[in-house]
C-alpha cells in the first residue's frame, strides 16, 4: 500500500482540496441565503425585469421610469398567472369537494362488502391467526396515524416557510427595482474594484456555466410541459374529473427526482380497483405507462444533451450523492455542480488543479475531448501535471 500512497498522495490531496472548497462554498451560500434571502431573490427578479427596462431605456426613457414600468409589468404578469391558476384550481377543488360525499359512499359500500366477505372467511380460521391479524392491523393503523401526523406537520411547516418566502419575495422586488436603477453604477464599481482573479472566475461562470444552466432549465421546462400535456389529454380522454388540477400536480411532482407521476397515479389506481371502477383504473395505469415511457425516451436526449452529460447513471448518481450530503438543496444544486465540473474539465482547469503520476497513464484522466466549437485548453494547463 505504501507505493500506492507515495504515487497518489498529491492526487488525493488535490481532489480533497477541491471537494472541501465546493463544500465550503455551498455551506457558506446556504448560510448567507438564510441571512439575506431577499438579496439573493432580488437578483432573480432583476434578471426578469432588466431586459424590458434596458429596452425602454434605449428608446429614450429615463432609467427610473423604465425600471418602474418593467416592475409593474412583471407584477401584473405574476398576479395574472397566480390568479388564473388559482381560479382554475379552486374551481376544480370545489367540484371535487362536491363529489367527495359520493366517493365516500362508494368507499364505504366497498368496505362493507369486503368486511362481510372477510367475516365469513375469518370465522373458519383458528383464533391465533385472527389475533395475529388484529395485531398487524393495529400496527398498521398506528403507523398510518404517525405518517398522517408527520404529513400535517410538514404541511404546516411548508405553509409557514411559504409565507416567509412571499415576504422575502416582496422585499426582493423592491431591491430589484433599485438595482435596475443603479446597475450602470454598480457595473462601473465592479469593473474598477474587482480583482483580476475574481473577474476571470466570474467571466468563466457567466460564459460557460450560466449558459449551460439556462439550457438545463429550458430542458426541464420542456419535459414538465410534455408530462403535463400527456396527463391532461389522457385524463380528458378517460373522462376523469379535475383533469387540469391533477395534471398540474403531476407536473409539479415530475420536477422532483425519484418521485414523479407514479406518486399520484398508483394510489389512485389502487383506490379505483378497491371501489370496483376497474376500467378507469386500467386506463390510469396505461396513461402512467405512456407518460413514463415518453419521459424516459425524451429525458436523455433533452436533459442530458442540454448540460453535455448523456449518462443517466452519472446524473442520477450525482443527484443521490448531493441529496445525501446537502439535503434538498443539494438535489437542486446537483445539476449546477455537474455542469461546473464538466465545464472545468472541458476548459482544461482540472488538468491544472489535479496532479496525476504521469507514468501511471497512457493518457491523462482529465484530458478533455474537445467538441466542435470548443477552445483548446491552454498550453500551461496541459503541461501542469507532474
From TrEMBL:
InterPro entries: AI-2E-like (IPR002549), YtvI-like (IPR014227). The keyword Membrane applies. The chain crosses the membrane at residues 12-29, 65-94, 155-179, 221-240, 246-273, 280-298, 318-341. Keywords: Membrane, Transmembrane, Transmembrane helix. It is a multi-pass membrane protein. The keyword Acetylation does not apply. It is found in: Membrane. Its main location: membrane. Belongs to the autoinducer-2 exporter (AI-2E) (TC 2.A.86) family. NCBIfam families: spore_ytvI. This is Sporulation integral membrane protein YtvI.
